[in-house]
Structure formats: structure tokens, C-alpha cells
Design a protein that fits this description.
alpha/beta, two-stranded antiparallel ribbon, 7 strands, 14% strand
């Protein structure tokens, strides 16, 4: 098929695959791919598409379903990634790679999934074009930029406390109109809370939910063992947490866990 204007502007000398992954979450070491979409741009200005949905083998959290619009039911008859891994890798071939935030997330996840399927993904031998890195270098991400984006105004009294507060209030109002529900007001933005969307248990992000279990984000069990297995195998470690400089929120949770009163998975996950 014809690649059109994008292919001509890129003026590539070597095939380029621009890709994106939809996953069960943002935990690189554990979350799984549910959809992979790739576009291969060729030097002759043609392009080829590849898209496959895959069964991750684990439940998709509700907060992720709200974002990606893909449910467990929709994937029940889809293949596992290992079953389509070779065709996906063959599609990529020796192409360079492009995407948005792929160096920090998509590439490591894809590399891990290929490895689990018994395949090697030699991405370090390729040129990587990460649109997010370029965007962050060239475009402002401060309050003035947000004010311009959401309110279409120039912030003339930046860096005065009251002026910045007034601008932020205007931005929140604009975000309610754009992303929320005007009849609910500011409450409709609660679903955009970072801590909820990223599944952290506590404000200091020392523990994180994944697939129904609570994992520490520190120490020797970081992302390796969940709280129930630590209670079973190494209670002394949790006693150390109780005697160390952790928040009261964490210590209360640990004290209850040692009595096998474990925290419940939040409804939004």
C-alpha cells in the first residue's frame, strides 16, 4: 500500500517500524501485552501495517480497561504472545524503531516478551526514534505551557504565587470541560489521580498493587515477592520494616498483615 505524506517526509533510507503496545499496566517486569500495533515504512515510500490482540494470561485491571477499552472477554479467544512472537519479530526484521516513550517502556516490555517466547530482540543494534524524548526536549511542560494549551492565553504574571494559583484554577476548570463532567465539577477529575492510576498503596509509593497482590518497591523483595508470601517466608523482614523509618500508613498495614489481616484490593484496580 502507499505510505503517503508521512513516508515522504521521513525520507528514510532503511525500513522503520513505528509501534505501540497496549498492556495490562505499567510494570515493565510483570505486566503483559494485550495489543501490538506496528507500521513499517519502507524506503520506496510504501508502508505495511501489523496489529494483533493477544491474551495476556492475567486479568486486566479495571483502571486499565477504562483507559484502553479492551476487556478480558474480548481477548479470551486471542492467542498468547508467544504464539505470535515469531511473526511479530519477522515483521520488524532489521528495521529501525520509532514510537512514543518506547525507550523507557515499550522496548523493554517487548524485549522481555520475546525472551519469554525464546526469541532474541536485538534492539540496541538499531536506531531508535522516540517522539516523547524529542517532544520533551523542544516543548515546554511548565505552567505557562499548560495555561496556553488549556486556556489559550499567555500567562503574564507567572511565578507570583497568586497569579500561578489563579492560572491553575483556570486550567482545572478547562480540564473539567475537556476531560470531566461539568455537572459534577472538580469531582469528575478524581479518576485522573496519579496514585490511583499507578496502583500504589501508599503516598510514598513503597508498596504497589499488581494482579491482586501487594508488592514492596524497596529492599531485597522489591517487585519479587508480595506481602502474603513475605509474611509466610520472612516475618523478620517485616519486623525490621516496623522498626525502621517508614510511614505510619505502612506500619499499620504491616502490623495487620503479620496477623494475616491483609489489605483488600481497591475497587478501581
Amino acid at each position: 500500500m502507499t505510505g503517503g505524506e508521512n513516508s515522504e517526509i521521513m525520507n528514510i533510507k532503511k525500513p522503520l517500524v513505528v509501534f505501540d503496545l497496549e498492556t495490562t499496566g505499567v510494570w515493565i517486569e510483570r505486566d503483559k501485552i494485550v495489543e501490538i500495533g506496528m507500521i513499517k515504512f519502507m524506503p520506496d515510500n510504501t508502508k505495511h501495517d501489523y496489529v494483533r490482540r493477544v491474551n495476556p494470561g492475567i486479568p486486566i485491571p479495571l483502571n486499565v480497561i477504562r483507559i484502553i477499552g479492551i476487556t478480558d472477554e474480548m481477548l479470551k479467544d486471542s492467542p498468547r504472545f508467544k504464539d505470535i512472537a515469531k511473526e511479530a519479530l519477522d515483521f520488524i526484521g532489521d528495521s529501525d524503531l520509532g514510537g512514543f516513550n518506547i525507550q523507557r517502556f515499550d522496548i523493554p516490555v517487548l524485549e522481555r516478551e520475546f525472551f519469554a517466547a525464546g526469541l532474541s530482540f536485538h534492539w540496541k543494534d538499531r536506531d531508535i526514534y522516540d517522539a516523547q524524548k524529542i517532544y520533551h526536549i523542544h516543548e515546554k511542560r511548565d505552567l505557562m505551557a499548560a495555561y496556553q494549551l488549556y486556556c489559550d492565553k499567555e500567562l503574564t504574571n507567572a511565578h507570583s504565587a497568586l497569579g500561578d494559583a489563579e492560572a491553575t484554577a483556570e486550567i482545572l476548570s478547562a480540564q473539567i470541560r475537556r476531560y470531566g463532567k461539568e455537572d459534577e465539577g472538580i469531582v469528575s477529575l478524581k479518576d485522573f489521580d496519579y496514585e490511583k492510576s499507578s496502583a500504589y498503596f501508599d503516598a510514598e509509593r513503597k508498596f504497589c498493587w499488581w494482579n491482586g497482590n501487594l508488592y514492596p518497591m524497596f529492599g531485597k523483595y522489591r517487585r519479587k515477592k508480595h506481602i502474603k508470601s513475605i509474611v509466610r517466608d520472612d516475618r523478620n523482614y517485616l519486623e525490621w520494616v516496623l522498626s525502621s523509618d517508614f510511614s505510619d500508613e505502612i506500619k499499620v498495614m504491616i502490623e495487620k498483615a503479620l496477623k494475616e489481616d491483609f489489605p483488600k484490593v481497591p475497587d478501581n484496580l
